[in-house]
Amino acid sequence: MTKDVIALTPRMPDPWAVLAGLLSGGPDRLVGTRGEGAVIQLCDAQGRPLVSVEAPLLVSVEGEAERLLGAAAPPVPYWWTEARATTGVAEAEQLAGAFATRLAALVGGSAWPPDAAGSLAVVKSDGVSVAPEPAAAQPAIDVLTEKVAVVIQDRPVVAMTAWLSDAFRAAAEAGLGLQIVSPAGTTLSPVVRDALGGWPSRWIVQDERDGYYDGLTGAVLRWQDGAFDPVLSPDATQDDARTPVAAAYQEVHDTGDRQLGLTFRMVHPADERLVLGGGLETVWRELTGEPPAGWGTSEPANLPWSPARLTDVAHERAPEPTWFVAVGNRSRPGIATVRVTRTKAGVEEEVTLAFGYGADEEPPLDALPAAAEALATRHRLQSMLVQLRKARRDVTVPPRFEGPGVPLAFVLGAEEVRAMPGDRARRTPLSEQPVRLGPRTRPALYYPLPGNPSDLAGWRDFEKLMRHLKGA
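Structure (tokenized):
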């Protein structure tokens, strides 16, 4: 497995501390840079990277080291400095560990993982070399074929780090799928799950019994023709390409944990006074009593919650789309992604949000209508879907079957209600009729879905409602 080693320090590593860490390979080790100097690399004699070190990141959000690493961190704010060792080179892993150990010794703090902390002595790496380009051209990518880019991650949580974000971008620009390989016991950030998309991108989990399997579908996989692809069952036919499902994926343990998920879209006029993130903050406050704890353009979310700063970043990147992640505090786990896109209709915000609840905690379902009304009346809501599902309280994705969510409610914004002919939006085939939100003259509509949360009846009601609203 590739080794990611992280130094968590209360003070910013100054240039001399970074230089001392880089000298862990000896004074003759070559040093290179990438990304306009944002990444520094220790290289072999041919200039190919052994260890890549990213610029230190100031983290001002409590709980991110615990959420992503399971590690204790200095009090916020602290500095997060990542060193990534090249795959399959033992000396590279030692170099990364020595770099982080030296950094922590000079400016305080600790190195993660604990067993990566090594000696302060110089690592003997004479004669060590790594794979030639193009595999070494992108520090985050471990294997490159004509079909996929493969990233190996040995972390408790595979998160959308700056490294992984670069890998997604590089694979997309090359027209390749991205396949992430991790050991058993690793979980996936919902942010990464949503970014993986479809084939040939996958989350691949190593398994003692079945070798490898897809962490999101359970399909047993093998490395075939330059990519991880499903294994066919012996009784598979041309018309029925059956795929074995890994035993580990089918081991379901119902802990009683649940997640409340909301997906909603807002469309704003393209106005210089527009402030983004207000709709997300409104929902967060309605359902938890607090705003989000922090946000960022990657994980860890490193900035204290600020709609104004979030808006500034989106404005600087316009007209290109912008993506953000927002997180909650440790008492109420929550994570959201926000996609901001400029379209002909204006500025669209698409939010995917999930909160986690333990077996002894009740999701605040009674607060949903108030949250929907606030979105509809103050944030130009277009539509929203609310679901409840059996899933982990910490809102990470395990490599086993969790089951789909059950729709609890659907909300249609005022403009969409007004655009529908006649009374179609107000009269539905469901047993419960919609609740009016906002002013009587321009209402939004809240549709309770009467399906039993313990089964899939909610999906049948939701499908029936969608057919009706579309006039089918």
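The chain is about 20% helix and 30% strand. Confidence is low (pLDDT under 50) at residues 119-137.
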